[in-house]
């Protein structure tokens, strides 16, 4: 008989169970969801459903928030632990501006680019 692997990504637990297992309040969980720290599955009737992976992530968020981290720091730390990169709006704008300048005929390395504009953003 082949033993089935436990599916920790299967969202089947209601918010009441998540509250009991994590020690968080419903308000905290909704706040973390509203601030995109966690993505929660929904049933057809729009009820929040949590997986074991979701509960683990909620516990990580709780631990980070208890160590005086703010939302943005928690978001960065969670992204880093998942191996994804999160950039702020200003970082994205700066990167986009650099890419546009490099692609334009007036890029910073061009001899025709006026020296008075070099280094200005």
TrEMBL record:
Which SUPFAM superfamilies does the record match to this protein?
Putative DNA-binding domain (SSF46955)
UniProt entry keywords in alphabetical sequence: DNA-binding, Repressor, Transcription, Transcription regulation
What InterPro entries does the annotation carry? DNA-bd_dom_put_sf, MerR-type_HTH_dom, MerR_fam
Q: Which organism is it from?
A: Lapidilactobacillus dextrinicus DSM 20335
* Record's protein name: HTH merR-type domain-containing protein
Q: Lineage of the source organism?
A: Bacteria, Bacillati, Bacillota, Bacilli, Lactobacillales
This entry's Gene Ontology molecular function terms read: DNA binding; DNA-binding transcription factor activity
> Per the database record, which ranges form the HTH merR-type domain?
12-80
The reply on keyword Transcription is yes
The UniProt entry, under SMART domains, shows: HTH_MERR
Q: Respond yes or no to whether keyword Ribosomal protein is given for this record.
A: no
Do you know which Pfam families this protein is assigned to?
A: MerR_1
């Amino acid at each position: 008989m082949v033993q089935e692997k436990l599916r920790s990504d299967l969202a089947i637990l209601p918010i009441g169970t998540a509250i009991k297992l994590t020690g968080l309040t419903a308000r905290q969980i909704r706040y973390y969801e509203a601030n995109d720290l966690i993505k929660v599955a929904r049933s057809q009737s729009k009820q929040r459903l949590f997986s074991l992976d979701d509960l683990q992530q909620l516990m990580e968020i709780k631990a980070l928030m208890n160590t005086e981290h703010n939302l943005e720091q928690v978001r960065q730390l969670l992204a880093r632990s998942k191996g994804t990169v999160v950039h702020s709006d200003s970082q994205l704008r700066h990167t986009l501006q650099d890419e546009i300048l490099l692609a334009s005929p007036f890029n910073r390395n061009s001899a025709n680019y006026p020296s008075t504009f070099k280094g200005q953003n």
